[in-house]
Design goal:
By secondary structure, this protein is of the alpha/beta class. It is built from 14 helices and 14 strands. Helices cover 32% and strands 20% of the residues. The strands form three sheets. The chain has a ten-stranded mixed β-sheet, with helices on both faces. Strand 13 (399-406) and strand 14 form a beta hairpin. The longest helix is centred in the N-terminal third of the chain and has 17 residues, at 79-95.
Length: 421
């Protein structure tokens, strides 16, 4: 019997909007401060020293860990957990949801991470070495500290959330992927509120610095604020940073019913895989990821107003991403292209979520923040639309595209639309 092929028509899904933002970044602990720093050229990179590696550079957060935890809770938990707790609580506060009236079993936490557990394991092994490797000194909280769901789990414990919680290991695409997962779970009806985004404690593990250094991919500069320089001819690597950014996501109807302020609407997204190399990006797969996200959003490259690049400041990675963008955006496109890592370094699992946050106010002020530290543009990174060193006033911002790519070839793109009632 011959099979009849029918054209697939996707179901009509609930619209998902962003109603709250909680963050800590190396240059600010709330959206207003973070955004002002991006417009005023304020870097969050500083001198840093870590065991075995010695003096280096990093993006360090300086938030009030005791705002939503007591000292015992901070001591018992992890840095990633503390960042998650701070960011989740701030996202709920910012959304102005009546938290006391919310059914906590209908709240989900979807948190991207690059890695988790290295900090705690390195510290415990070092502590063990100081006591002739007597395992009686091993911390009995080590297991709950190092399980992969720890950061989301710590936030759930802190906030009394009894709905689903988990982390998504997605390398440096994790922040975007947390956002995508949260949106999908809302559309599936698995929760009514999603706390979604990403966190990172990466600067507290010497291993990540040592590995990037051995690859020749760890940024060096006599002036810390000039170390992170994507697209610049003199770029020499990644500045490792910590941070967190969590969004309160809701279905549009629910947000409108309570009169919520809406930062933007998630209208398209895509995750795909290079399947070609451990670390070297594949521009063809990256361009496919961007193209599919635009297609799912129902728009063309000509509709995009701002594109936030993933570019980390490595020699090959930046070139590969620009090559991908050239495949998608022709020279006539109006898109303005920027980069946030030049200000705060690479916040790993939090990067995608933080970089999106810094661009969302453009829906209101129509200003595109720049990429800083580009003294001499690398010709191989040249593309029309790059916003370099100074902010750019735009006529209107309706669509923002956020790129995040990671090791093992994971790519993610999110498309956010300005919400107009």
């Amino acid at each position: 019997m011959a099979l009849t092929h029918h054209q697939y028509s996707p179901p009509i899904l609930p619209r998902i909007v962003l109603t709250g933002i909680g963050l800590t970044s190396p240059n600010g602990n709330d959206l207003a401060t973070h955004r002002a720093a991006l417009l005023n050229g304020k870097s969050g990179v500083q001198d840093y020293e870590i065991r075995y590696v010695g003096k280096t550079l990093a993006g360090v957060c300086d938030y009030d860990a005791l705002k939503h935890q007591n000292r015992r809770e901070v001591r018992r938990g992890t840095r990633a957990g503390s960042i998650a707790i701070y960011s989740c609580n701030e996202a709920v506060i910012d959304s102005q949801i009546d938290w006391g009236a919310i059914d906590k079993s209908r709240v989900g936490i979807y948190m991207g991470v690059t890695e988790h557990g290295n900090v705690e394991t390195e510290n415990e092994v070092y502590e063990l070495s100081q006591f002739d490797y007597d395992i009686s000194v091993w911390n009995h909280f080590h297991n709950p500290r190092t399980v992969a769901n720890n950061p989301a789990g710590e936030a759930a414990l802190n906030m009394g959330i009894t709905g689903p919680h988990y982390t998504l290991g997605a390398a440096c695409a994790a922040g975007n992927n947390g956002l995508i997962q949260g949106a999908q779970m809302l559309q599936l009806g698995q929760c009514d509120i999603a706390l979604a985004g990403g966190v990172s404690e990466s600067i507290h593990t010497f291993g990540i610095f040592a590995s990037f250094k051995s690859q020749g991919a760890l940024a060096e500069h006599t002036d810390p604020i000039k170390a992170s320089r994507p697209f610049d001819k003199a770029r020499n690597g990644i500045v490792v940073s910590e941070g967190g950014c969590i969004y309160t996501l809701e279905r549009l109807d629910d947000a409108l019913a309570r009169g919520a302020r809406i930062y933007g609407e998630i209208v398209g997204h895509c995750i795909n895989t290079d399947a070609t190399d451990f670390v070297l990006p594949n521009p063809e797969r990256q361009s496919e990821c961007i193209g599919l996200a635009l297609q799912r959003a129902g728009i063309t490259p000509q509709d995009v107003d701002i594109l936030s690049t993933h570019a980390t400041g490595t020699l090959s990675g930046d070139i590969q991403e620009i090559s991908a963008l050239r495949r998608v955006f022709d020279p006539e496109c109006k898109v303005s292209i920027n980069n946030t890592k030049s200000f705060i370094g690479h916040c790993m699992g939090a990067a995608g979520a933080l970089e999106l946050a810094g661009n969302l106010p453009s829906f209101t002020d129509n200003v595109c923040h720049p990429t800083m530290n580009v003294d001499e543009l690398d010709e191989d990174c040249s593309i029309n639309g790059l916003v370099l060193n100074e902010a750019k006033q735009l006529e209107n911002v309706e669509y923002i595209v956020n790129n995040s790519f990671g090791m093992l070839g994971i790519n993610s793109t999110v498309v956010i639309k300005k919400f107009v009632p």
